[in-house]
Amino acid sequence: MKTKHLTLLAMYTTIALTIFVVESALPPLLPIPGVKLGLANIVTLWLLLCSDWKDALWVLILRIVLGSIFAGQVLSFAYSLSGGLLCLAAMAILHHFLGKKQIVLTSILGAVFHNIGQLLMAFFILQSLSIISYLPVLFISGIAAGTFTGLCAKYTYKRMGRLMHFKSDSNRKNDVIN
Amino acid sequence: MKKDFAGNILKITIGVIFVISLIVVIRQFFFSTSGTYALIYQDNVLLHKIDLTKTSESMEFTIDYNSDTVTGYNTICVKDGAIGIVDADCPDKVCEHMGMTSSTHFPITCLPHKLVIQIVDDSEVPSDSPDIISH
User: Fold this and answer.
1) Which candidate among A87, A89, A176, B34 keeps its CA 20 to 30 Å from the CA of A57?
2) CA A122, CA A76: separation in Å to the nearest integer?
3) What is the CATH number of the domain that holds A118?
4) What average pLDDT does the structure give for chain A?
5) Torsion of CA B9, A56, A64, A20, to 10 degrees
6) Do B7 and A102 touch (CB under 8 A)?
7) A114-170, pLDDT tens digit by residue?
8) Beta strands B132-133 and B45-51: pairing type?
9) Number of domains within chain A
10) Measured between alpha carbons, how far is B106 from B112 in angstroms, rounded to an integer?
11) 102-121 in A: which are within 8 Å (CB) of B?
12) Pick from A175, A150, A156, A178: which is nearest to A165 by CA?
């Protein structure tokens, strides 16, 4: 069982990494640092639904480390990590309290917190208050991107969530999502 | 029931944040005021202070960036009272895509090279600026 778990986590890391690298190869949607779709967050959401936050954390950290090696540079690692960790923390707490029905809401707030985390890191690195003026744009892009990734995760889970539970059977009865 | 209540509160909060952000963004993009001075910071050090009103013809110059991990450059262009980054060797090129601007509401940044171009009015110009480039 442990081998199966490990293999599944490796597979999810691969999926997340592929999405991450492909997305970073696309041209930026808006010419503002931090605005992006964040499609790799679908995998994090998926793991919150099918497993727990610990597995999501493993996959997130592995994806960020490997993603920075493949696609980015040293500095983007810091931005990804601060955004990703804050995003996961917010989503794990919300998911715990709101449950699986509100996965889109969880995703939206996760995306917003991702952008807040990145902006905090940018503020820490640049030491310049002027970047605070990106905050409203980042809020809007976070809400839009979060809705999109949340809906992706929701409908994927609706179709094949029952097949993919791999942590335990205890919460199988509650996995109906509308 | 309790979950639905908390969910609704969060939905309303998100809605309010969305509307406020939208208003601020519309103000930033469509009702922005043009500034007169461009301040170019790198690593939080003021490198250049440029009077945008005095630049009649276009002017280009390059700022190199060297740190322990990253070396690179940004070519900055000043033209018709606006400033922008026209060339850079950073990986994402976000700074190039930001185009030419004279808006005080929106700074131009190149995060990989720790470069910030801020546009301010006369009143906000720091007095101990190192140099003034003008044509």
Assistant:
1) A176
2) 10
3) 1.10.1760.20
4) 86
5) -80
6) yes
7) 999 999 998 888 887 888 888 999 999 999 999 999 999 999 998 887 777 665 544
8) parallel
9) 1
10) 18
11) 102, 105, 108-109, 112
12) A175
Query: Hey, where are the domains in chain B?
Result: 1-31, 37-122
Percent of chain B with pLDDT over 90: 9
The CATH architecture to which B37-122 belongs is Sandwich (2.60)
Query: What are the structure tokens assigned to A92, written together?
Result: 């794990």
Question: pTM higher than 0.80, yes or no?
Answer: yes
ipTM for the predicted complex: 0.80
Q: Which residues of A touch B91 (CB under 8 A)?
A: 72-73, 76
| Residue at token pair 């909060």 | B13
Closest CA to A58 of A11, A20, A101, A21: A11
State how far the Cα of A127 lies from the Cα of A125, in Å rounded to an integer: 6
* CA distances, A90 to each of A70, A85, A115, B19, B56 (Å): 27, 9, 12, 22, 51
